Fold these 4 entries.
Entry 1:
Amino acid sequence: MASKRKPIHTPSAAGAAGGNAARPQMNFRQGLNDTTARAEAKGTRPTATPTSIREVLTMMVLHVCKKIIFFDTSLKVPLYLGSLFIVSLIGDFLPYPKTYLARTDNLFNVYFVKLGWAWTLLFAFPYLAMTSITICCGDNQRLIRNHLPRLGIATVFWFVWTKLFNVIESSYGRCSVRGFDAKTPCLKAGHLWNGFDISGHAFILIYSSLVLMEEARPIIGWESIKDLLRNEEHNRSNNDNSQTSNPLKNLKDEDLKALKYFYNRFTPTIRLFFIGMTMLQLLWDLMLVGTMLYHHRMVEKVLSGIIAVVTWFVTYRAWYPLPTVLPDPVGKGLFNYQSISKPEIGLRRRASLLQPGSTAAAGANAGGSPKEIPKFMGMPLYAARQQMSGGSVGAGASPLEGGSASGQQAAFGTATSKRRKMLDNRFHPSG
């Protein structure tokens, strides 16, 4: 009697069938095929244009210039005044060795310092005009009424203080030779006029540096306007009102067009003027060192420095920020592109969720809810849960969710042995 032989399943076919039956489905979003999922995952926001090498180099130069010109004023002002006092005091008793900066006819003194305010206006005025007309979206009246008066006020203060310094020197001085009661005849006769000569050079150098620093502030965040324009144009073309954080959302269509026109037209020139303002400020600081070392007495220089700092503080830090008084502060326009907060990167580390002193660990030790257990891609970290629960397993708890390491190993071994028996029975069936 011939025995019936059972069909033998090949390992490849059985393994494939068994694997497909036992392998869990990895489709996390059931009911959607790959094409639909990829279409929904596609971004709808416009992307930035590729950055050229020239643009990268320009950004590097601008970054260095920002570090120089926007030096912290809480350190810069004390550094100015402290240097005027210490360096000048030493020079009054121990004269410094003569250098090229000690000569009154040196190139920098003749062509730059004596025309210091003219050089300051040469860079600051067009820079202020271009940045202000851009952030005001082409509103010329707002430019003339709210922004240009800042440089006019600074010019008035410069003129008044320098004239007052000359009046004080002429009124409270004497000629080195008797018979001359006025400064001009004394000097024309070849004599010296000894008076309280408040340093006009120290005043103009410090005041110009502070004014340049304040008027250059629109460059901070200037590059973000390009992204804001691109996103806002996309939102308006698609009637997308979901983006509420864009500062350009409340602009009219004609204002948005004017902003784009002036931004694209003036941005390269604004960058050049900003670099020039930075170089000019470095020159003013260099000439200020020469003034500290070789010209005027300590009292005359310190007093002029104090007047320059007080004038800057009263105007740019106390007067202009007032909301109901003109002129407007630097950078104020029809939108506020500098108010976008950026996350702090690399400044402070967050407390580890596995650290015993962290809030999550404290909540778990105090009997907090399972939601406080740290997760990765939606799955709980069992090792962290074990550590937070103190290694104990509650009643009815799964060995994989809590318990000792030996319990987890035993559970893993039991599951492995069952898996092996199932595969043996499938691949090597009994007769």
Entry 2:
Amino acid sequence: AHSHSFWFPPVPGPHAHRFLCTPLAAACPSGAEQGDAAAGEREELLLLQSTAEQLRQTALQQEARIRADQDTIRELTGKLGRCESGLPRGLQDAGPRRDAMADGPWDSPALILELEDAVRALRDRLDRIEQELPTRVNFSAAPAPAPAVPTALHSKMDELEGQLLAKVLALEKERVALSHSSHRQRQEVEKELDALQDRVAELEHGSSAYSPPDAFKISIPIRNNYMYARVRKALPELYAFTVCMWLRSRSGGSGQGTPFSYSVPGQANEIVLLEAGHDPMELLINDKVAQLPLSLKDDGWHHICIAWTTRDGLWSAYQDGELQGSGENLAAWHPIKPHGILILGQEQDTLGGRFDATQAFVGDIAQFNLWDHALTPAQVLGIANCTGPLLGNVLPWEDKLVEAFGGAKKATFDVCKGRAKA
């Protein structure tokens, strides 16, 4: 409760009784009645003032709840502030201010009515705010100013996310294009290097230089685990093959070793031709073994052809143009896997390495060719007799496709002219 001092104008004068009598009084009351009426009016004024203060506190609490609900409905807080600032002047002056009470008579019936009207207006505005609040918070309702902020924010985030995704896709396409371009450039560089190597060999050896594709041999003079040649071409998946080569062993009858081996990831013995010690020559396909009726222990040149097909695992072995034997069920229905490593002169225990000197080849290899089908007996005989030269359609014997390592050497040699020589 607040203590107030009231000023009463002097009794004389025609206007004094207007402030001392209520509008409904028929005549001016006595002094005691005037005191009771003034006390009742003050109590009613204090009650209205307390009610206004409670409403003000309610408005402040409502404002706090609105702020806590969501930042996007700040407009309601501003509206509440505008409601408070828009009160009639009489209510603003009716606050608990001591100086304002000295400016005019608080016991005026007109001021009391004005306070009542202001309180009702404030109550009506608060009711409308409470009714509007659920619809403004509900984002599924009709479009309203409050949810415009998150809607715009989400739209902006979606737009930025789309731009980022587009940029990532563009960079990925650019990376793929650069990779393809780099691959093509690498192939072109390899072709140029091959041409330069051929030119250098021609200039170094003059007219005696061997000319691709077939006038050379690979020589491995001693048995070890580091001399070999590698074929620089990946094989495709094969359902049949024929492999032919000229061989001259210098093992002294102790076994030819491994003329060639082909390994793929997960299988070191995908295709292996091997003769160890006094054992017969063997053909391994996917670790399955067939013994071949071939004999190469006289240190002379011999032409060898081996044909195989995945259908029933059929195989045939030729020596010097003649069929020496055939069989079946050698890795039947197993296709030869692609993208492996083909080594001449060593047996691979792992992909491309871990050679064993006891299984190494010693001697010369020439005209190693590979086809993706079985050659006819007439074709095999023509190659062996040097009457029908034929290059492999999968792997031809070309200088640029064969690289020597560890001391193995390439030498000028035409097998059909030089096979009778020592």
Entry 3:
Amino acid sequence: MLVLFFSTVTGQAGRSLKNIVILKSFFQTRALFSTTDVRPCPFLTRLSPPSRGIGLCIRHNCSQKQTQEVQIRGMASIDSLDKTQVKLLAEECIVVDQDDKVIGSASKKDCHLNENIEKGLLHRAFSVFLFNQKGQLLLQQRSDAKITFPGYWANTCCSHPLSFPEELEEAENLGVRRAAQRKLKHELGIEPEQVPLNDFNYLTRIQYQAKSDGKWGEHEIDYILFIQKEVDAKPEPNEVQNVRYISPNELEGFLKSSETKGTKISPWFKLIAQTLLPDWWKHLDNVKSLEDHGTIHRM
């Protein structure tokens, strides 16, 4: 595309100032949105805004046609999946690089296809750990209708901030906090006033990758949010089939017995529970002292 554009502009004997401005704008846009990797985009980051008139994807300089062709080839059958969950696949997640810098957006479906994950597609997520005043952690068992990790036990709430201004806001991590408040209401029926934005403690981030099955999986940079509140949980059955509060000692036994009892534990929760969570839990009364916003733990 670059060669054709260049020849079109420079091939005119009387090149006008207008064309010079267009060419300069093209190179500036290319520099802004490209990386040194210029192969056709193997994963489905969204295109730069149509108003730019240049069919570059935000990550890899792809033409719009090329990106659409990759998207068509990457489609997985959704006919057998829960209809409510299928609708949620259209949500736009935030695509990030290895340093958690926003580089675009992609549908929830695109972000969770293993074939895209294996090519590097990475999105932003969060995990809420909600404790009651006794210091017990609220766990949820994911609904069997969920597309990824159905029926698995996990921490209180795990989801994604979406690619719109309110949840893209990075100042004081407001976007992630808003997303957490939204999903606690959606999944567990917890009213926003019971979990005020300022009461979420953002501790750190982890990056992990896991397959749910042959088609679907996760590859996320996951913001860890702690909050200690008494709440009224009213689980949405299509999202959550069971909840329970658990103490540190009970969790240790729960994890140890999961394999013999056939209890399924989500990979992100198991990773966190076996590494970072025990120390965090011991310092629940002073959890802000554990904040580490500069580190992304690769797990």
Entry 4:
Amino acid sequence: MSITMVLSSQTKPVMASSNKTRNNFSSNNHPVCTRTNQILALILITTTFFLTRTFNQYCPNNYSSSFINKSSSQDLYFINNGWPNRGFGNQLSLKIYVYEENEIDGLKELMYGRDGQITVDSCLKGQWGTQVKMHQMLLKSRFRTLKKEEADLFFVPTYVKCVRMMGGLTDKEINSTYVKEFYNPELGSRIPAAFDSRFSFLFSGAGAHIFRSWPKFLNRSIILTPEGDRTDKRDTSAFNTWKDIIIPGNVDDSMTRYGASLVEPLPLSKRKFLANFLGRVQGKVGRVELVELAKNFPSKLESPELKLSGSEKLGRKEYFEHLRNAKFCLAPRGESSWTLRFYESFFVECVPVILSDQVELPFQDVVDYSQISIKWPSTHIGPQLLDYLESIPDKEIDAMIARGRQVRCLYAYAPETEPCSAFVGILWELQRKVRQFHQSAETFWFHNGSIINRNLVQFHKWKPPMPLP
């Protein structure tokens, strides 16, 4: 809603003999436009203009107007403006069908394990919590539809990373259960996920490789994952920019929620270390180098090897208290290119330093990461890195932290009602994947719109394996 005042005026030549005209106006009881009237009118117009701007700012007339600023390529993030209309559209307009757990054979096992003993609450914790959070938010979303025929996208929920980590299914069981979910040799495809780019799956750890037959059954589906690694150890990346979406990792809710967080940031002047790395080494080259560097420069770099259990294991609060005690939080590569510390650093207001050459980051069409983080070559981990970080004035560090403070809401899995959250950002990314027409090197079509494969077989008769698009 906005208040609009339209002023229309016609200007006519004023002659010396216009006194008679003025007298006629007066005689007809029309008010004379005095200098005072003009000043009052100007004040009214000015007041109306500013009231309208203020009212529109706090009462946006569509959902998109309260997201990302698009007024300047130099602007990073301002809450009360719109997401850039750069292939996204100017407002969210999606219909997503969410499969029920009893709707597909095998789906319950992928959510709760073979015995159904894995709980939803236990899967909310840790890096894999995104699988549960996205599912729960989609179930409550105003963009959810219960009608398959009107859906733009189909979401198939699984908590498979959590189920695997908690012993609910083995790798072999995960693969066979997924296969059973998608394909029955006698009945054919249960859901056409491998062939239909409208289907989306979320893998919050190990990427789609946790289901080793993904190239056969999910090669056209949209994969939501923090694992944007194109150089993984299987030499076949499960991430494809043609169809997939990088999502933020799952930062502990106690640090991202509105109001008081578990641990508050420290002023730069009170931080003990220049930089830190808080993670398990696991024999990874970059991490080993950081531990050795910390031994040589203990006053500058804190890098204890974190333990999984025992008296040396850091509690949740202790971990974040350590993380906030440095100006720079180092984020080296682990099993794959991404690390949760990159996202956690924004909530303790520590500038993240990426030491992972192949990393892919979420919302790269919206966020200018060079303004809020540093990316340093992993081949140059050593004293040179510490010298560089030490050369950056606190004034510039503060400026980077302030810009990071503006965008960090995009890394929090807050409800859809919040104007800025990872969930809403992912919805925008999904919207850009919704196309009226999908084509690749392995899709063809007839004059009547029927989609066929290279052997002229129509879509509903396709059988795996299919070549990648």
